[in-house]
Structure formats: C-alpha cells, structure tokens
Amino acid sequence: MKTILNSAVLRPVMDKLGAANAETARRWAGESTGRQPVHTVYGGAHLFKAETCAKLGEAACHAFKTYAPDVGTFATALGLVASDPAQDAWLKETVYERVREKLAREAVEDFRIDFEDGFGVRSDAEEDTTAMRAAGEVAKGMRDGRLAPFIGLRIKTLSEELKHRSVRTFDLFLATLLAETGGMLPSGFVVTLPKITSIAQVEAFADVLELLERGHGLAEGTLRMEIMVEVTQSILTDDGRAALPLLLQAGRGRISGAHFGTYDYTAACNITAAQQAMDHPACDFARSMMKVAFAGRPICLSDGATNVMPVGPHREAKGGPALTPAALAENRAVVHRAWRLSYAHISHSLRNAFYQGWDLHPAQLPVRYGACYAFFLDGLKPATERLHAFIDKAAQATLLGDVFDDAATGQGLLNYFLRALACGAITPDEITATGLTLDEIQSRSFLKILEGRKPRGH
C-alpha cells in the first residue's frame, strides 16, 4: 500500500495551517487574567471629589443598616431563596454577613467620572474648568489612597457636533492629572467612549490616545478605552456585517471592556419607555451578540443599570421632626421594591454570564453584592462536589448523580470558582473543599491543573 501524504507533500499545507492557527491563537488569546470589578458606579463630573468613593460607601452602609437591619429583612426584600431548601438559612446568613463586610471594606470597586449624561450640556468654559478640577481631585485621591481600585472617565460621544468638545475634555483632564502626579495614572484607569455610531469613531479615538501617549511620554498602550454598545449601529453595519469585531479591530488593542447601554439601545430599537428594561428580549439579543463577538478575548463585559432608584419619598429635614412610623414604613416599602427589581435584573445578567453592571446610587450597592454573592454561593455545594469528583478522576468523564461532566465542563466549573473568588462571594478557605489549591485555581486552566497532577514520566 502506498501512502500519498508524506511530510514533503504535506509541508506547504501544514505550514499554511500553522500560520493560520497561530493567528487564531493570537486573536483569541483568552479572557483577561486580571480582576474584573462587579460594577461600575457612574457620577456626574461636576460632583466628583477625592473622597466621593468613600462617601458613597458610607451612604451604602447607612442604606444597608436602615433597610436591611437583619438577615430576614434583607432576604425578603431581595426575594432571596436557596435552590436547595436545606441550604436556605445558611445561604441567607452568609450572603448578609459578606455583604455587610464588603460594604464596610470596599463598597465601590469601579467609578466613572461622567462628562456625558451625568454631566449634561454646559458651557465650554464650565466643562474645561470641571475637567481640570476633576483631574486635581483624582490626583488628591491617589495621594490619599481614597480612590476605588478602578477609575476612569466617560467623555461625550465623538459625533460631528461634539467631537472637539469630547477630545478637549480628555486632553485637559489628562494633562492636569499627569502634571499633578508627576506622570502617574491611577491603577485600573480607563476612558469610556459612548454612543458609537461608526467604526471610524473608535479608530479616531485610538489615534487620539496614541497622540496623547507620544505627547506625554507615556508607554505605548498605556491609555485604554471601553466601548459602549448602546445603538444598533454597534451591532450591525449598514451592509449587514457584525460590527462588534470591527470595533475591536479599530481599537488596535486598546479596548479592555464593552458596556451595554440598556436604555439608549432600547430607545434606538423604538421600544416605548414603559417597556425599556434590562431583561427585555432586545437587550438579550444585543448581549448575546456581545458574548459571541468577544468570547475568548480579554474584553470585560458589563451590563447596564436598573433605573429605578431605591429612594424613599419621605426625607427627614435637618433640624426638623422625625419621620412618622407611617412615613418610615412607606420609605422601606419603596426601597425594598426597587431592591427586588434590581436583584431580578442583576440575577438575569449573571445567568447570562455578564458579571459586571452599572450602579447609579449608593443604595443600589447592597443589592449588587447581595445578588452576586447569592448567585455564586447558591451553587457552591454542587459545584464543589462536581469539581472534586472531576479532579479525582483526573480528566476522565465523571458521572455524579444526573449530571455528566466532560473536560469543557471542568473548565466551566473552574471559571465558576475564579469568578466567585474574585468578587468576594467565596473565601480562599472554601476553595480547598474542591481538592484544588488556591495556586491551582489561579492558574485559570483546567488542562494545566491536570497536567501538573500527572505522575512524572507520563
């Protein structure tokens, strides 16, 4: 028998395939190994001060203490119920205690100084002044150690009417900040580009960031951007192509995140105000497109915000009489209604693998962490058992109960623990019940873990 496909015959084919495989590996290099915040808090640039994040944390703690004074009240307000009745009391107690600890320690993970919707239309002189003042406050926050772990600003859209204003704001902000810090930027610094209607806008902003790096002597790639997906043009081009991969290419490696804008997007789809909601099917479609376009890439995805604020109708005037029991009860009912809606929205996002979202008010922070922690803790016991069994079988398919695990599921289970650990839902000690060490979990690769556990010589 004579074979045809010897190495000499195959070499051109294999070389061509090897180059293509290398390019695929470069383009789909995997998710970012860095920490992803669970939320981004937006606040008007005119209100930002060095202590803003700390003040928001204090307000979040006050809201939690006022409207969730005990485990039962918090669980009832959110509608938190364990999928396993035997775990219900443990889940509610654990979520409550970890939310309380998180709010006291680090209530705000990511903050965006907003020059767009949160700032509005103001005179050029006022925006210039605000840009420089906000930069000074960031510099002060860096010196005092009072900033959130991640911070940045959202500029105006690069539409024809606003492109010069938008770029000037960032130019002033950056120049002032670098002058006050001796050329340093805060950790996790990023610029958010909203309402992208064309690929050219992302290309232009990448050019702007490159010019600023050169002008300020910053290393190439220092300035990063997030894109906002909030108009239909960000999903499809006018000739029917998928726009999101083209936007990523236009960013030339500078895009670190993509945030979904619920209300602008639903408005662009001609959905009436009463139907504009985080869990509308049109939003699910857009988010699915984002997942497909950015899967396997180091792009952090974020959902939008619930726009119903947890604020009671009655406020106690300074120096005035205390609120009546009836007024207090009405405030509590209004806040709890908003909390339950937000909890449903965040849970919907989490089920669809959007592990970050927006918060617009400090009283939303308790429910943000409550939803995240409940999502991961509710599945902790079965996920631990499945991962432990999978590890014991060392890459052989495992049948546990009525769930069949394969290698891809093993990686999915590992991703679950990585996310749960990163957001604070579980502790490092709880990792050990899986049979893995913290170092193994943080390797982020199930195949690497199994390879490391093979006996020598295999």
Radius of gyration, in Å, reads 24 Å
> Total number of helical segments?
17
Element pattern in H and E:
HEHHHEHEHEHEHEHHEHEHHEEHHHH
The tally of beta strands, per DSSP, is: 10
The fraction of residues in strands falls at 5-15%
Low-confidence stretches: none
The strand line-up of the biggest sheet is 7-6-5-4-3-2-1-8
CATH 2nd-level architecture of the largest domain: Alpha-Beta Barrel
The CATH superfamily of the largest domain is known as Malate synthase, domain 3
Rounded average pLDDT:
91
Describe the structure.
With 458 residues, this protein is of the alpha/beta class. It has helices spanning 7-27, 52-67, 71-78, 88-106, 124-144, 163-181, 199-216, 243-250, 262-268, 281-294, 325-351, 365-378, 380-393, 407-423, 428-431, 438-442, 446-452; strands at residues 39-44, 110-114, 150-154, 189-193, 225-229, 255-260, 300-302, 357-359, 398-400, 403-405. It has an eight-stranded parallel beta sheet with strand order 7-6-5-4-3-2-1-8, with helices on one face. Helix 7 packs parallel to helix 8 (243-250) and helix 11 (325-351) crosses helix 12. The two termini are 34 Å apart.
Main attributes of the structure:
globular, eight-stranded parallel β-sheet, alpha/beta, 2 domains, TIM Barrel, two-stranded antiparallel sheet, 17 helices, 458 residues
Task: Explain the layout of strands and helices.
Elements lengths: L6 H21 L11 E6 L7 H16 L3 H8 L9 H19 L3 E5 L9 H21 L5 E5 L8 H19 L7 E5 L5 H18 L8 E5 L13 H8 L4 E6 L1 H7 L12 H14 L5 E3 L22 H27 L5 E3 L5 H14 L1 H14 L4 E3 L2 E3 L1 H17 L4 H4 L6 H5 L3 H7 L6
Helix pairs in contact: 2-4, 3-4, 4-12, 5-6, 6-7, 7-8, 11-12, 12-14, 13-14
